[in-house]
Every structure is written in structure tokens, then in C-alpha cells.
Amino acid sequence: MDRRSFIKLTAVTGTSAALASCGNPENQLIRFVPAEDIVPGIAVWKPGVCPLCQAGCGLTVRVMDADADVVRNGQAGLVRIAAAKKLEGASDHPVNHGGLCARGQAAIQITYHPDRITQPLKRSGDRGSGRFEAISWDDALGDLARRLDALETAGNQRAVAFLTRPGAGFRQTLIDQFVSRFGAPAPVAYELFGDDVQRQANALSFGRHQVQTLDLANTRYLLGFGADFLGTWNSPVAQGAGYGAMRQGRLGVRGVFVQVEARMSQTGANADEWVAARPGTEGVLALGLAHVMMAEKLVPDSAGRAGAIVAGWSDGLVDYAPDRVERSTGVPAARVERLAREFAATRPAAAIVGGPPLAHSNGLFTALAVNALNALVGSVDQPGGMSFMPQLDTVAAAGLTGSPARQTIERFAADALSGRPAPDVVFIDGVNPVFTAPPAWRVREALDQAAFVVSFGSFLDETSVLADLVLPDHSFLESWSEAVPEAGAGVAVASVAPPVMRPLYDTRATGDVLLDIGRRLRRPLELPWQTFDEMLAASFSALPSATADADAWTDAQAKGVWSGPLPPRLARQTGLASPARRTFSFEAPRFDGDAQQYPFHFLPYPSTAFLDGSLAHLPWLQEMPDPLTSAMWSSWIEINPATAARLRIGDGDVVEVASSQGALQAAAVITPGIAPDVVAMPMGQGHRTFTRYASGRGVNPIEIVAAVTEPATGALAWAATRVRVSRLGPPDSRLVRFAGGMREETEERR
Amino acid sequence: MPRWGMAVDLDRCNGCAACVVACHAENNISTVGADEAARGRAKHWLRIERYWEGEFPDARLTFRPVLCQHCDNAPCEPVCPTYASHHTEDGLNAQVYNRCIGTRYCANACPYNVRFFDFFNPSWDKPLHLQLNPDVSLREAGVMEKCTFCVQRIQAAGTQASAEEREVQDGEIQPACVQSCPSKALVFGDLDDPGSRVSQLSRSPRGSKLLEDVGTRPKITYLARQSQA
Questions:
Q1: Which of A230, A396, A429, A565 has the CA that lies 20 to 30 A from A547?
Q2: Helix, strand or coil for residue A216?
Q3: Å from B160 to nearest chain A CA?
Q4: What domain range is B28 assigned to?
């Protein structure tokens, strides 16, 4: 502070004191007294919930004083606030046990991002132009309520669409209530790297429509089929903890890990043995192993329901003899037999499938095959195997009834474009389908049909930039946060945490906004809560208390988590009404693109840093070297060395990747960890509009992915596109790597 | 007086890079952006290295987190004309930023490539600066910076322990990287306490030091990744 501003401030203080009799003196003095429950220089630790993925990891947030330009009590100025400083994993959280992944560590940059939307906005230019002007919350919500009232008057409630991310938390339950009480169709849920195929397979095999939890810490032989369980899939921190214990947590016992995948993922890089099966044939390999185990009587033949729905199981899977498996998968017959014997001989053993193998038109079959293999070795619901974690039914906990339904985004877009019904008001919460859906689904064109698009986003991304009204949410550190994980622990878990800090800007919690809109309608929605935290309080109060001296709600808020045995009436019913009536057999995967014209399989994979691209706006993650390539701030395409030599592509050269859908340019990274007929590219970059750090950087692989789907679930088969690759020119500045080339001898080879 | 060191179990480490970002978050390491990163100016006190062996389909990869090895016989120390790079009593290889005049001799002498030069004053697009850790000083242009084993956490734990009139317990001090690690691959503690976890792990037959034969006597022990028996 310089002398001049000191004098100014002294004058203000004096005036404030003089005005004390006619105003509220506390409000005037608040600039100078740290009011936010904080002692300068002393750190306090508060619970939080990581919002970045479905895992629902618990946080411990370090909070200290900081001077921030904020509005407090109607005055803008430099105020000493209580500010989050560092996110740590909560040490006693049943999912993450004190760990926190790279993305979770960087989540704090969401709150302090310089391009956050700081207040409600309404569109002032053409749709998509990115030109907005300020609007007050009252005007914004009033305008929105009037539009919804008009739809209600016209009996056209079904012209409302709500786009959200999948999940089973309280926020989703509130959205369900909002939508159904208004009379709108079920929300549209979309996640590019979602687990719909897996859930469907688990429902068919085990009667549980849920992603499984792995007991890695106790397993002695783990057979992975493409699942990047240490990087991006399911509950990576919980699985990382289990992995560490599996390798070195038991005296004299080291669990073996074999990974089957055509491109070595970060997880596959840790395998003792890496098996590159042909894309889309992983299920054949799984059944080939089962065949050997049954033929050699290594295990009892029974695999229950999971086996019964696989065609040919009762005949010992004669179609999956090792020589036929070799022809189909490219894995030598002798290796199939050896792996089968090892897998059968070691107890406990478990198989896990996820990611690319399920992103084919036959993904459901692949998941069913691996499920049957698990059932065959008796790993279901056993220590060291896989199980289904009890999950809180948020609908029942909130005192409501009904089971949530979801529409696919493909159907939403198709309906909107065919005008039945033309969407009038579209809400968007937590998804960016314009970026993450294949262009052939025409999501952007579908949103253009909507009369009024409302986004709850904190940033202008490719989808929210199309909004007519932006109602920015608080950051997760500024609002009540919650998560109800579907996997990752042995007991039911519901994370919840009060706001860690006061909001920096004129934002509002989306849950509160939905409840507010519901009250403003001409025919109010009559939801039983005034605010989102009232909903949480009512729901957590319905849970059994874990300690004798506090009720469940008080205890959960203090710890950041509730966990324990669930009364049956509060457990989510994940079973299917009736088992499948048919059996499933291998069908060759369907690929977009002719094999002659497009000789390579194209694999867009979830980036370690950005997942599906929703985290590309965080500078720490942009500058984090990718674990497999050390690339930063870049896009790249991974090519096998032999393929690169044949195409005369050198490391770092600029290449073009073209599919039937279009073409992209990126730098080549030549790596031995990929099959010769596969090229791979991480998702995440290629944003047109997504803050100063991500906009205009790299390319988005989904732009050349064709709209092949898995038929039973409608999930995008994102690994089912074929491409051709050609060299365009020498390395330029587009690829930035922290280390040099991939190998030390690269220089000598040149 | 303790002698701080670390053990890194490469059989637990799976290359997830949680430690890399945790280090940035704790130590006020500024990002430099794509253009400067392309000129080799990105700063990562802790990085994940990759060791590829074999060719497709028998390729094998091992990750190795590399940070300052806090050598007992540190090549960076005697070359510093201002004693900015020096050894503390508790065995840390410390850097006094206010003494540093930016000769970069230390970075040239270090065989591990873990010292980073600040080519410009650090800057954060507001309000990203609100995240800054007040316990860690910012480094200005012309200064070398490096891993400190999170000395601020070491000192805070020591202060707390002496206020409570007790010794610092084993495991009480966790540098940011150790704390974040999901698979518990990193263990920090007092190498002179024979009962501490880190000193037990450092005596493991799987243990080795990075570039042991150059005679730097590092205080980080890497426990080898094992193979399928």
C-alpha cells in the first residue's frame, strides 16, 4: 500500500465511523477486519468433494487468508478473504485414502480461473458469436420463468430439454425432479467416455446395472482388457491405492498384471506382460482363455448366469479354440494357452475390461465375455476379485419416489432436427457435447433449433457459447458439493461438504437456481426444499448415523463423507427385472471406412491430463508432461516405428490423419507401444472456444470419428473409425515436449 | 539432527503424474506457456521419466519420478560462487534465492537435470495468484529454483513438535508429492532413524541410487520395478 492510498483509506474509515449511527457499522469495517472466520497466517483445513469425475474423491482443502478483489456487502474492493490454497486427498475417505490424482490437484484452478464467468449473461450478438452483456439475476430468472410459463400455458412442456452429465448424485436427482415436475422429457445424459456398455453387460451377467469395484489390494493375478484403471477409468485413485498394495503391500506376494490392448495406455505400461490383440477382438481372447481353462479342466465349468448368456458356453466354447483365437486376435495360440494356465492357477485372480475394447460395435459382447471369465475363476464378490458396491439411492434418501430415466444425445439431436418436437428451452449443465460428440450427430445444429438455450457453465466452451442466457454456477469450493460414487470402495459412500470459501463473484449455486425457478413459475413446482443444502440435509438425516454422539448429517458435514451399511430401503436397486432371454456370440466389429482406403484403426483416448477435454482450460494440466510422451500444450498422433518407417514419417513430423468424416493435422510421436495398424490420439485439445489457455490449441480427434454405435446401449463406438495417415512435412513448433524424443538412441538412429 | 531422504518404489509407481501437479500447487511453480516451454523453459521440480525397452509387441516401459536427489556429495554446491546452493544441517540441498546471481553453474554441474532457471519474473493471470502458498517464496528472474523436499512443511512440523515438546514422528512430514501419491510409491523421512520407513526401504535389496557411480551419494533410493517371477 502506498502513502496516497493509505490516506484515502484512513479517510474512508473515518467517514465510516461517522456514519456508524445511520448504517450498519460492521459492514463498513468489514474491509479491515478479516470476517471470514480466519486468522491471518494460520491455515485451517476443510472437507471438500472433487467434482471432476464420477469417482467422488474426498478432499481436504487448505484455507488461508488472501487479499482479493471481490464484492462484499455490496461494496467492491480489495478484501481479505478466506481462500482455498491447496487441495489434498482426504486421508480417511473410503474411496481415495488420502491420494489425489493430477487432475484433482489442479481442480483449484477452476475456482481461480481468470476466464470464469462472473455474473449472469445474456446473448447480445449472433448465437455463437461469444458476445454477451450483463443481466441481473432477477431479470434473468424472471425472463426464464416467463418462457417456461408460456410453454406451460400452451401445453408444450415437452419442448424443454435438459442436457447433463450421467451420474447418480443429488444434483442429478434435483434435475430429475425439476424436469419431471415441469412435465418435460427425461434429461439427456452424455459422456463421451461413459460406462453404459459396461453397466449393461453387468446387468446381463450379474443382474447389477452398475460399474464394478475391484479389490486390487488382495488380487494375485490381474488380467486387464483395455481398462486404463490407473489413469482415467472408473475410480483411478482408489484403483491406484489398490495397485500399490497389489504389487508391494503383502510380504512375499507380488500380484501379476497382464494387460490386453492394442495401444499401451499409462495403465498398460505398468503391466508385466502387454498383449496387443487386434482392436475389437478382446472378447474372443477372453473366451479363448475360458475355453482352455474348461478344456483342460483347470477350473469348474460353471460360470452361472454370466456363462449361460454366452453362446456355446455349455459346449465348452469350441468356437474359441486357441488356433482360432490366434487367427482372430493375432495373439499366438501358445500364448493363449499359457495365459489361461497362469490365470487359472493363481488365486485370487480377476479380469477387468473398460475403455477401447468396449468402444466397438461389439463392445457389449466383449464385456460379457470378460464377465464370464470372471465368473469362471470365481472372482465375483470374492476378496481379490470384483464386486458391486452398495450405492445410496438419492431419490429414496430425499424422500421421493420414481426411478430416473435418461435420453441419449444422439436421439435428442435427431429429434430436434426432425422437429418432433422442436426444442424451445434447452438447459445445459456440465456437458460440452458440441466438443465431445461426433459431428455426424449434429448436436450444434440441433441446439441451433432451440429458441432459448440456458447454460449453467462457469466458462464459455463450444456448447455454452451458444447460450442465450448464462446462469453461472459457483465453483465447487464455493458451494455445497456432493457425490455418490458408484464404485471404488467396499461400503456405500456419500460425500458431502459445505462451501469451503465464500463466492468470489456474482454467481449462484445451480441447485439453488433450479429451486428458485421452480418457485417463480406460475404453477410452482413445489419442490420440498428452499435451497440445495436443505435437500442435502433432509437426505443425509435419513441415513443411519456412523457415530453415537452425532447424527448422520452433522457427522457427514464434519468429515466430508458418510459411509457405512445402508438400510435396504435406501439402497439403489440396480438389478434387472428379468435375465436376458438370448445368448450372445462374437460378431466381427463394424468399422467406419474401407480397410483398403483407410488402413489404420483410429483410437481417440481419454487424456491423462484432460479426460474428454473438459479440463483443457487448466494451465497446470496443460503444462503437465504427458506420462507416456512428455508432451505439453499439444496434440499428437502415436504411430508404431515400423509403420512410420514405411510411411517415411519421422518423429515429430507433421502428418495428416483422414477418415470418412474429415481430416486433422498433428505431429507424429513414434512409439513402440502401439500396434502397426493402429494410430492413437489423445482427446482434450482442439478447443475453438474454451478460455485463453485451451482455445485454438491442437486438434480434436472426435471431429474425424464416425457415428458408429454399440446397438444395445446406443453408446458411441469411439474406437470404430478407420483412417489413413500421410506425411505432410518436417517437424514444426506444434509439438512441445518436456523431454526429448521417446528413446535415448533416437539420435544415433538418424 | 535428522537426515531427510526419500524412497521411491518403482513397483508401486504407475506414472499417473499426481506428484507433478501437486508439486506445482504446493511450491508456487509458475507455468511458462507453450512458447517458452518449447524453448525448454518449463519448470518441473519433479518429472516422470520413461524408460522404453524392446520393440513392439514386446515393448516395456518403466516410469521413474525424478526430483532433486539431495545428494550428500552434491556437485551443484561447490560450483556456486555465492553459496546460494548449499547443504543444510538436516541434509537438504537448499537454494537461497536471495543469494543466487544466476550463473547457472549449479544446473550445469547437476547430473540429474533437476534445477530450473527463471527466465522471467513469475506471473499469474489474476486471480490465479490467490492460490499461491504464502509459505513458499516466489522466485524472480535470474534465479535457479529446485525441489526443496517441501522445506516449509518440514519446518512447520518441527515447530509444531517443539511447541508440543516432542519429537517429529515418522510419517508426520509429507512433502506434497508424497501426500498426493495414490499408490504410496513415495516415502519420506529421516534416514538416520533406523526404525523409520524410509530408512528401512532404503536398505531394501531392490534399492539403488540414480547415477550412483558418479559419486554424488543421493538421498533418494529407487526400489527397482520387479518382473513376473
A1: A396
A2: helix
A3: 13
A4: 4-223
- For residue A464, how far is the Cα from the chain centroid? 18
Phi, psi of A558 (to 5 degrees): -70, -40
| Alpha-carbon distance A207 to nearest alpha carbon in chain B (angstroms) | 31
Three-state SS annotation for A452-463 = EEEECCCCCCCC
Q: Which residues of A touch B21 (CB under 8 A)?
A: 102-103, 105-106, 620-621, 624
In Å, what is the CA distance from A459 to each residue of A315, A516, A633, A636?
Answer: 56, 22, 19, 25
Q: From chain B, pick out residues whose CB is under 8 angstroms from the CB of A733.
A: 38
Single pTM value for the model: 0.94
Strands A132-134, B207-208: parallel, antiparallel or unpaired by DSSP?
unpaired
> How many CB atoms sit inside 10 A of residue B229's CB?
6
* 8-state DSSP, A396: H
The more confident residue out of A158 and A302 is A158
- Look at B56 and A85 and tell me if their CB atoms are within 8 Å: no
Best mutation site among B11, B56, B200, B211 for testing chain A: the one with the most A CBs within 10 Å?
B56
Determine, yes or no, domain membership for B127: yes
In CATH, the architecture of A121-192+397-570 is 3-Layer(aba) Sandwich (3.40)
Residues recorded for chain A: 750
**Are A210 and A202 spatial neighbours (Cβ–Cβ below 8 Å)?**
yes
B228 part of a folded domain: no
Identify the CA nearest to A447 among candidates A462, A459, A430.
A462
Query: Which pLDDT tens digit goes with each residue over B57-100?
Result: 999 999 999 999 999 999 999 999 999 999 999 999 999 999 99
Residues A40-86: tens digit of each pLDDT:
888 999 999 999 999 999 999 999 999 998 888 777 888 889 999 99
In angstroms, the CA A134 to CA A77 distance is 20
Domain A196-387 in the same topology as domain A121-192+397-570: no
Query: For chain B, what is the domain count?
Result: 1
